[in-house]
Fold this sequence. Notes:
Blueprint: H1 2-13, H2 23-33, E1 41-48, E2 60-64, E3 75-78, H3 84-90, E4 94-96, H4 98-105, E5 113-116, H5 121-124, H6 128-131, H7 149-157, E6 160-164, E7 170-177, H8 182-198, E8 209-216, E9 222-223
Parallel strand pairs: 3-4, 3-5
Antiparallel strand pairs: 1-7, 1-8, 2-6, 8-9
Helix pairs in contact: 2-8, 3-7
Amino acid sequence: MAKLSKARKAAAEKIDAEKQYLLADAVALVKEVNTAKFDASVDVHVRLGIDPRKADQALRGTVTLPHGTGKVKRVLAFVTPDKEQEALDAGADFVGLDDMVAKVSDGWTDFDVVVAMPQTMAKVGRLGRVLGPRGLMPNPKTGTVTMDVASAISDVKGGKIAFRVDKFGIVHSSIGRVGFSPEQLADNATELISTLVRMKPSSAKGVYMKSLVLASTMSPGIKVDPKPFL
């Protein structure tokens, strides 16, 4: 354990806690200070000047990261029997309706994204207590409740991710892995941040992007200057 804290200490010393880095410098630094022995996730944490309690400021949406997240997403598709083969052909890992509803109801959650056809939602809606707390409930706003399940599945497999602001006004999202090149991480981060800028609610007052922090699973946070994105 002492070894890890020593590594973390050495990593922290490479970061100027008072400085706001340019994104290009931050992504290079996050790779340098990562202490994990595995291909850790690289995450962006954006604190927004919004009030998530107001309906028009409770931001949620999707973004397609140019280089994906580096993680293979397991997709569960709730579809009618006539659409099962189509969903499988599009890359769904688990397909069905009544059998899958029963399985999830019993506590099975071995998947990352749920896609559903509108006509299945009466049954899928009953799974709120299992799917809701894990952020897995399909939603038309994120394109996961749709008649075109094949496209929705292809999008997820191709790097499309969903994000939502938490109750503190912060959006947390993975933008790749430590093994990505700095350019890939910068491209993905730019896509996410630019999407958040475009989604700024008209009713939001004052500073919109209050802070921007980049960190890997095992690294200290690195402050990023949000000004270039605004």
